[in-house]
């Protein structure tokens, strides 16, 4: 069975500072990896995903994540954050043979302060 | 594309009543739908997985007689919380999948249930 660990429950940063949200996973088989963002009282929105190929994936709003198979990690980064990036971020993993079942991490609350 | 809606977005009910939440895939056919529950400041907890035309598969510890799931068509799944109690108050989120081979799920906006 797979599992996901998000190492930081809360990450406060100042506007325009860089940020890294850490995610490690455990699985005995090949996986797909996802980062979702959740704004207050809303559902989840897909931020980016790793399926195969290039280990560095990017989103349209400046986030990127790198799949590191040897360290079983999929950390999310952004070089310069905005106030509007304040949200809860969830890392999720899906085993390629699991038929769409996602396992989520506990979430990281990113708070960007002026 | 791949939009999922939920209705209602917010519901308040009295203890002992039943509440139905609808989840619709608006622009695609969802072979599989998932129902999650989320408590404040916590992650999503998978309650059940439903495939169109068949009975839902419930996660361990989820009462199937209390949380009735129906997935009668490729675009609609419903969750009925029967005889709701205050401890059932939570944020319920559905998602739809099966569109792509790489297991992506598309999430609805969620339903906030408050049981008085």
What can you tell me about this protein's structure?
Helices cover 0% and strands 54% of the residues of chain A. Chain A is built from no helices and twelve strands. The termini of chain A are far apart. The model of chain B has no long low-confidence stretch (mean pLDDT 90). In chain B, strand 5 (44-51) and strand 6 form a beta hairpin. Chain B contains no helices and eleven strands. The interface between A and B is medium-sized, with 24 and 25 residues.
Tell me the layout of helices and strands.
The complex is a heterodimer of chains A (114) and B (116).
Chain A: E1 3-6, E2 10-14, E3 19-21, E4 23-26, E5 31-38, E6 44-50, E7 56-58, E8 64-68, E9 73-78, E10 87-95, E11 103-104, E12 108-113
Parallel strand pairs in A: 2-12
Antiparallel strand pairs in A: 1-4, 3-9, 5-6, 5-10, 7-8, 8-9, 10-11, 10-12
Chain B: E1 4-7, E2 10-13, E3 19-25, E4 32-38, E5 44-51, E6 57-58, E7 67-73, E8 76-81, E9 90-97, E10 106-107, E11 111-115
Parallel strand pairs in B: 2-11
Antiparallel strand pairs in B: 1-3, 3-8, 4-5, 4-9, 5-6, 7-8, 9-10, 9-11
Q: Please report the number of helical segments of chain A.
A: 0
Q: What number is the mean pLDDT of chain B?
A: 90
Note the main sheet of chain B.
7 strands, mixed
Shape of chain B: globular
Number of strands of chain A: 12
Count of alpha and pi helical runs of chain B: 0
Key terms:
heterodimer; A: 114 residues; mainly beta; four-stranded antiparallel β-sheet; B: 116 residues; seven-stranded mixed β-sheet; globular
Short summary:
Chain A has 114 residues and is mainly β.
